[in-house]
Amino acid sequence: MTELEARRLLMADPRHPSPELREQIARQPALAEFHDELLDLDRRTHAALTEAPLPHGLADRLVLGSRYRAVPKARLAIAAAIAAVAIMIPWHFAGPPSDELAMLDHVRDSRWELLDNPGVSQGIVRASLAELGVGLANSSYRIRHLGHCVVAGRQGRHFTIDSPQGVISFVILPASIGSLAKDSLHEGDTVGVFEKRGDILLGAFGSSAMEGAALRRLMKSVFI
Amino acid sequence: MRFIGRTTGHFDQVVRAYSGELFHFALWLCRDRHRAEDVLQEALTRAWRRWGDVKDEAARKSWLYTIVRNEFYREAGKSRRQEVPMDDEVLAQIPDERDFTRGLEVRQLLMSFPAAVIEPLVLQNVGGMTCEEVAAVLGITVGAAMTRISRARSALRRHCRASETGAPIAEESTR
C-alpha cells in the first residue's frame, strides 16, 4: 500500500481496521499526523451531528408505541372492551381506584424506569417538571432516568435517583379532584408516600425495607 | 408465550440502546424533530412486527438503520431510484468553493450537504459502521460509499482548516 492509497483509505474511514494501514501509520509520522487530524475532525463532526438534544422519554415512547401500534386494531378493540369491563366491575362495587394506588401499580409494573441512563442532568429534569408546575430543588442526588408516563389516563413524569437508601422513584401526576386518599401505601416489595400540592400529586417510592418517614424526608429535599 | 417474553425484552433492550443514534439519523434525514420521531416510531413498529426475521444479531443495527431509512423515503413518497441520482451530480452539490463557507459552523456546513452524502456520513460517524456496512444499508457499492464519505470529510477538513487559519478555502487533495 502506497502512502497515497493509505491516505485515501483513511479519508474514507479513519478507523479502518486494515493491519497494513495500521503498520503504515506506525511507520510514517506524516501519515500518523494526518490520521490524528482526521480523528479530531471526526470528533468535531460527531459533536455537530449529535448536538440536537433527544426528546424527553424518547426510548419509553418508542418501545410502548411500537408494541401498541403493532397490535391489530380488532384485537385492541376487544382488549379495550375487556379492560373496560374489568375496570367497571370493581368501580361498581368498591368505587374507583385511587390515584395513589394507580401510581404504586405503575412503579411496580414499570421496571424499565429503574434503568440507569447516564447523562440525565438536573437541568433537563427541572425543565420537564416545570411543565407540570413542579420545582426541583438543588440536590446532590444523581438522576438515573427520566421518562414521561401515563397513569390513570393522565400524563405525568417518572424519574429515579440514586440515594443513600438505594434507588428511589418519583412520580408526578396531575391529580384528580378530591383530597389525598392515602398518604402512604405498602404493597409487596414497594413502599410509597404521597403529597398533594394543589392540582399535582407527588409520589416517592422505595423498597419495602425503607421507612416511610425517611422516604417523606427525601421527597421534601428533592422538590421545592 | 416464553418466546414473546424473550422477544419483548430483547426489543426493549435494543431500542433503548439505539434509540438515540437512530433518532439523530432520522433527524438528519427529515430535518424536523417531530417528523423524525414519527418516522422512527413507524420504523420501529415495522421492526417489532418482523423482529424474528433477523437471524444474525450482528446485523441487527444495520437492519434497523435500513428500516428507518426506508420508512423516511416511504413517508416522503420517494422511490429509491429518485432518491439517489448520479454520483457526479450528488458530489457536485457539496460546497467546495473557495470562500463562501467561511464562518459557518460545522453543523451549518453539514446542513448544506445533500442527503446522498449526509446519509453515509451519519451511518459511519454516528452509527459506527464500516464502509461495507454503510454500502449495504444504502444499497450502493462499497466504492461509492467510500467516495461519498471521503468527499464529505474532505469538505469538512477544508472548512475546519480554513476556519482555524483564516486562509482561503482551497480545493486540496488528501495530502
Overview features:
heterodimer, A: 224 residues, alpha+beta, Phosphorylase Kinase, domain 1, 2 domains, 6-stranded antiparallel beta sheet, 8 helices, 6 strands, B: 175 residues, mainly alpha, 9 helices, 70% helix, globular, disordered N terminus, disordered C terminus
Parts with pLDDT < 50 across at least 5 consecutive residues of chain B: 1-5, 79-86, 97-103, 169-175
Kindly report how far apart the N and C termini of chain B lie.
Answer: 60 Å
Oligomerization category of the chains in this entry? heterodimer
Helix percentage of chain A? 40-55%
SS class of chain B: mainly alpha
Named CATH architecture of the largest domain in chain A: 2-Layer Sandwich
Counted up, domains of chain A total 2
Pair with the most extensive interface?
A-B, 38 and 45 residues
Biggest sheet features of chain A:
6 strands, antiparallel
Global Rg of chain B:
18 Å
- The fold-level CATH name of the largest domain in chain A is Phosphorylase Kinase, domain 1
Uncertain regions spanning at least 5 consecutive residues of chain A = none
Order of helices and strands of chain B: HHHHHHHHH
What is the overall shape of chain A? elongated
Q: How many strand elements of chain A?
A: 6
Category from helices, strands and their pairing of chain A: alpha+beta
How are the strands of the biggest sheet of chain A laid out side by side?
1-2-3-6-5-4
Helix content of chain B: 55-70%
Q: How many DSSP H or I helices of chain B? A: 9
Q: How much of the polypeptide of chain A forms β-strand, as a percent range?
A: 15-25%
